[in-house]
Each structure stands twice: as structure tokens, then as C-alpha cells.
Amino acid sequence: MTRTTPAALLLIGALGLLLVAPASAAAQPYGVPSAERDDASAIASLRRAAIAVERVSYRGTRIVSSWGSESSTTILVDVEHVARQGTLVRMRGGGAAEDTTAFLAARDEDSPHDPGLGVDSLELLTRTYDLREGTPGDVAGRAADVVEIGQAGQLVARIWVDRASGLPLRREIFDSTGQLAVESAFIDLQVTDDGFIAHLPPGAPDTDADQVGLSDVPDLQQRGWACPQQAGALHLVGVERVADALHLSYSDGLSRVSVFEQRGDLDPRDLAGYSPRELGGRTVYVRAGMPSYAIWEASGTVYTLVSDAPVGTMERVIASYPGADRTEPGFWGRVAGGLARMGAWVTPIV
Hints:
- This protein is α+β, with helices and mostly antiparallel strands.
- The chain has helices at 6-14, 40-55, 119-128, 217-222, 311-319, 332-336; strands spanning 3-4, 57-67, 72-82, 86-92, 100-105, 130-133, 137-139, 142-151, 154-162, 168-174, 180-192, 209-212, 230-231, 234-242, 245-251, 256-263, 275-279, 282-287, 292-298, 301-307.
- A hairpin with a 2-residue loop joins strand 13 and strand 14.
């Protein structure tokens, strides 16, 4: 059975690519949506990016920012990637991610789903959104082609793809009101010959997981696990067992959301740093940041959502799960284990 690290899936799956910009920045109208309008050159650019993130070695620094109605977060991410070996990252700032170093091994070729901007994610992206070429630009002094991603006449995201290497250089994601919600970009980048990262930091403790086939989801649902296969525009793309919890990964090819399901009871008194908030028609406990967390309990199961996606995307995922109906003592120490601490290992990179 394939072994993997859920924190690594979250980290790679975020695939952030952006530069800090004012939160007042807004998306422009996208035009009339139609699946037939997908631009072949835009798809080709993203396919180049999907290949490059696995085959091209590089080092550089990214600046990543997110904005919400109540808070904003910015972090710096130093990245060293060696093709076929893995990625060394150091996160600076952003609260839980402050001064964190982690190594993410290269994706197992036998992995049943691609957590990043791979062929599987590209297929999801083209199925969910309309793609077209945007106005070319420059990122970190490198010429880039721009792909605009839209839905229902509104610009949802932009991705800058390096003409020379194919690497994704920058990403902007807009919320449902057209305001900039998440942005990330390289501020410096050097494409390198294949090398080797000799001195690796320790991996995240106690986060090994066993893959579960998507075909097993109906059986899990019969046994009382929620496991919704659709959450708004996001599809269930991966399921893992993490100790006695389930880790479910959702994606629309653009954003990624992870949800952990674990039996137990939630005690709000133990949620230091979390604030109650109405999201998706449920009262959940939220800690905003990079990434953000939402935690709630329903009928003896605790749900922990982790994502760097816009709040509206998180809301749609929360709404697809059972709502909170009671709170009792005993959750945090006994149930959460190390899951809430995974934020130190989760941040957007390429």
C-alpha cells in the first residue's frame, strides 16, 4: 500500500504562485462563458507548467499573501526544488508557519492522484472553468505567458507561466465579489541543473498515511463517515487514513481543501486562538492564516478543514458536511492529536 505524508499533499497541492498586491484589487469581467471557448494555447501553457513542476530544478523565494474580511496574512517561502528528489522549503512569517523548514519528497509515480498542478488537476480545471490567454507579463524579471481562468462571466484566477522553463511563476485568485483573495509570486528565481539536497530537515512526525481508493468511499459512507464526493465545484480526489482519522482532499484544479474526519467530541474551551463564526450555514471555530482552519463537531465526529483557498470556497465545502449539533468536553487532547499542529507544515509553494 502506498505510503505518503498528508502534510506534503497539502503543501504541494496548494501550488501558490503570487506577489503582494492591495486587497482592493478586483477582477475584470471575463466575458461570455462557454466550454467551447477554452483556448488551446492557454491549455498548452498549463500543461507545460504541470510537466515543469516535476522535471525542472530551481531555487528561489516566493511571497504569498491572503486577504479576508477580518484578517490578512503574508509569508515568505524560500524554495529549493530538485527534480526527482523533492523540495526543501523554509517559511517565514504568517503565524503558525513562522520559521518552519520542511522537505517534501518527490511524488510517488504510483500515487493514485496528483496533489499539485498535474495532468489530473488540469483535467479538473478545464472541466470546471473556461480558460483563455491573457496579456503576457513579467515576474521576477522573467517573461511569462498568462492564463486567465473564468466562470459564469467572471474572472476567477490568473496564472503566469515562465516562457523559458514552463514553471508557474505567479497566481492570483479572486473571491466571489471579484476582490483579490490569494496571491503568490516568485520575487527571485534561478533555474538550475539537476542537483542533490544533501542536508534535509526531519519530516513531520506521526503524519504517515495509507491511501484509500475512491471506490471505497461508498463503503466508508455506509459505516458512518460523511465523505461527500462533491463540495461545491470541488471534487473528492483523494482519501487517506491518518491514525484513526480520515483525510479527504478536494480540488477543482485551482484550489485545494483538506478535511479530516475523526470520531470524538469538541470542547470549544480548548480552542485557544479560534473564534466562532458562521460559515456554510454552520457554527464553526476558525483560525485564519496561511493556511486557515475551521473546526466543528456533529453527531460524535469532529471535522477539521485546512486550506489556503478563499473563504467562499471553504464555505461550500463546510456546507457539504454535517452541521454542528452539540458540543461536549473531551476533544482537543484526545481526538485532535497532531492534526491541528499540521499548520506548521502547510503553506502554498510551487
